[in-house]
Amino acid sequence: MKGATERRELLKAVYEQAHGCVRCPLHQTRTTVVFGAGNADAELMFIGEAPGATEDRMGLPFVGQAGKLLDKLLQEIGMQRQDVFVANVIKCRPPDNRDPHPREIESCQGYLRRQVDLIEPSVICTLGNFSTKLLRADTTAISRLHGRDEVRVIGTRAVRLYPLYHPAAALYASSTLELLRADFHRIPEVLALGVPEQPEPPKPPEPIEPPDRDALSEDRDALSDDRDALSEDREELSENRKARGAAQSQAPAPPAGDREPAAQLGLF
C-alpha cells in the first residue's frame, strides 16, 4: 500500500509524461493537458469523457457548468471536491467538443489506467457513456446501467464500478437530473461496501536452473562417441558399396528374357 505522499509524487511523474504527450492528433489543437485533480488517496474517483473549453483553458477537469453541478451533488452527500479524484477518459479537448475518436481513447487510456493503479480507489463512478463503455469493455448504454454497482477489474485492481449519467446531460433535462441525483445519493451506500476482494497477483516466472556442467560434459562426450561411430559406419558402408559394384561389373549379363519386367520396360 502506498501513502498519499508517495501517490502524489508518482502521479506527478505520470502527469509530466502526459503533459508533453503527442500520441494522437489532439496535441495539435489543445491549449493544455487536463490530467485530473483531487485527492491522491481518494476512495472515490469520478471519470468523465473529455475536457471542455473551460477545462482546456484552465487545465482542470469539471470546472464549467457540469463541474458546478458535480460540486452541488457532492455537497448533498456530505462530500467536497477535495475528498475525491476527478479525471477524464482523454486528457485533451477534442475540437468543437466533438466525441472522442477511438484512436484518441486508445492512445490516452494508459494514463487513466495508471491513475487508477496509483490512487487505488474502492469506487469509480463513470460519468456518461464513454467512460462506462471503456471501463466495462462493453457497449451497453448508460441508460441501462446507471445506478447499478458492480465489481470490475481495472488494470490490476478490482473496484466497485458505479455508472452515472454525465452532469452535462442533466443540465438541460430535469428528468435526467433527478435520475442522477437519486443515483448520487446511493454513493455513500456503495462506499460502505468497502474494497472488493482483489485478484491474485500474477505469479513470478520460475527461475531457470543453471545447467549441470558435469552432465553437460558427459553429454558432449557421448555425442562425440556417437559421431565417431557414425563415421566408422559410413566408411564401412562405402567399402561395401564399392565391393558390390566390382562384383556386379564382373558378372555376365542375363539373357533378355530373364530380365525383370521393369527393366524390360526401361524403368529404374
Structure report:
This protein is α/β, with parallel strands linked by helices. It has one domain: 3-Layer(aba) Sandwich (Uracil-DNA Glycosylase, subunit E), CATH 3.40.470. It is built from 11 helices and 6 strands. The chain has a 6-stranded mixed sheet. Strand 5 and strand 6 form a beta hairpin. The longest helix has 38 residues, at 213-250. The radius of gyration is 36 Å and the shape is elongated. Residues 256-268 have low confidence and may be disordered.
How is this structure best summarized?
This protein is an alpha/beta fold and 268 residues long. The chain has helices at 4-19, 53-58, 65-76, 102-119, 129-136, 142-145, 167-170, 174-184, 187-191, 213-250, 261-264; strands spanning 37-38, 44-48, 85-88, 123-127, 150-154, 157-164. It has a single domain, classed as Uracil-DNA glycosylase-like domain (Uracil-DNA Glycosylase, subunit E), CATH 3.40.470.10.
Q: CATH-wise, what's the superfamily?
A: Uracil-DNA glycosylase-like domain
How are the strands ordered across the major sheet? 1-3-2-4-6-5
H/E element order: HEEHHEHEHHEEHHHHH
CATH fold node name: Uracil-DNA Glycosylase, subunit E
How much β-strand is present in the residues? 5-15%
Terminal Cα span? 80 Å
Low-confidence stretches: 256-268
Assembly state of the chains shown: single chain
